[in-house]
């Protein structure tokens, strides 16, 4: 139990770091092409894990040999989620994208019912409906009603939530894969993003210290350490409790965006935030109690 608790708290570090994702993406300038930004940040994450391997006295090559299933989960999860997230940030306002993308904690609770020895509960469904009402308030808050011009961004942000929640739940099925292997997943994702960048984009380097801070911050924090701590947490910790703790990420994200001047603290935004968190907690508590009875 002590090991499970330790893994859960290690995984919770990711929640704090992911709360900075939207702000750091904005600090990076918004002009760097998506594939280039992915290549830069995932490259930094790979180097970060490479530093760990060097300190341990080896090159990390031993962690390359993983099953095709594990590689598929890692690459689709990391590459797919971050490309969709960066793209959504260019298609819709940052606050809306952040809150919609952060529905992934709720989806983790719902999808975890598909894992062995888990089942769906009515309280989880109620929580999902409450959170969806919050999203409706958020994306329809403009005076003119639903902002159809932002619909592509909304859909891509929702795809982010589905991709990352699926990645997290499926990772539970490959818990024997060491967290160090995520370093290689990051490295391959960086190479794939670099190839796409060279084919379809023009290089745009960060302009000024603040944009470099955003890029390096992304690579070290929400695209680096957070991946490694989350992988360890969902594989070895209490995944239901981690899902519940992750519900604080939307509030962290929105508060940081508003403090930095990228969002407005309107009644609609605050109401949507509260409803999303309440709905997520309802679903999370249902799963947590259920796990305790089994």
TrEMBL record:
Top-level lineage group: Bacteria
Gene Ontology, cellular component aspect: membrane
Organism encoding this protein: Vreelandella titanicae
Coiled-coil segments: none
Protein name: Methyl viologen resistance protein YddG
């Amino acid at each position: 139990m002590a090991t499970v608790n330790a893994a859960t708290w290690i995984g919770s570090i990711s929640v704090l770091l992911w709360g900075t994702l939207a702000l750091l993406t904005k600090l990076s300038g918004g002009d760097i092409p998506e594939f280039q930004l992915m290549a830069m940040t995932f490259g930094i994450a790979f180097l970060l894990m490479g530093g760990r391997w060097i300190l341990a006295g080896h090159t990390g090559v031993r962690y390359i040999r993983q099953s095709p299933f594990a590689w598929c989960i890692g690459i689709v999860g990391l590459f797919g989620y971050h490309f969709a997230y960066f793209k959504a940030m260019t298609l819709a306002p940052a606050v809306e994208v952040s809150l919609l993308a952060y529905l992934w904690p709720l989806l983790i609770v719902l999808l975890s019912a598909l894992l062995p020895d888990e089942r769906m509960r009515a309280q989880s469904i109620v929580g999902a409906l409450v959170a969806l009402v919050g999203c409706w308030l958020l994306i329809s808050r403009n005076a003119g009603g639903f902002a159809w011009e932002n619909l592509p961004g909304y859909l891509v942000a929702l795809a982010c939530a589905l991709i990352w929640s699926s990645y997290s739940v499926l990772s539970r099925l490959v818990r024997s894969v060491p967290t160090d292997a995520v370093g290689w997943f990051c490295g391959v994702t960086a190479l794939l993003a670099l190839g796409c960048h060279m084919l379809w984009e023009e290089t745009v380097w960060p302009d000024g210290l603040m944009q470099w801070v955003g890029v390096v911050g992304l690579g070290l924090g929400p695209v680096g350490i957070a991946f490694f701590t989350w992988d360890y947490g969902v594989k070895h910790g209490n995944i239901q409790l981690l899902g519940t703790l992750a519900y604080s990420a939307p509030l962290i994200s929105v508060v940081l965006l508003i403090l930095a001047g990228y969002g407005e603290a309107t009644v609609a935004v605050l109401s949507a935030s509260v409803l999303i968190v309440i709905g997520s907690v309802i679903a999370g508590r249902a799963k947590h109690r259920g796990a305790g009875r089994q």
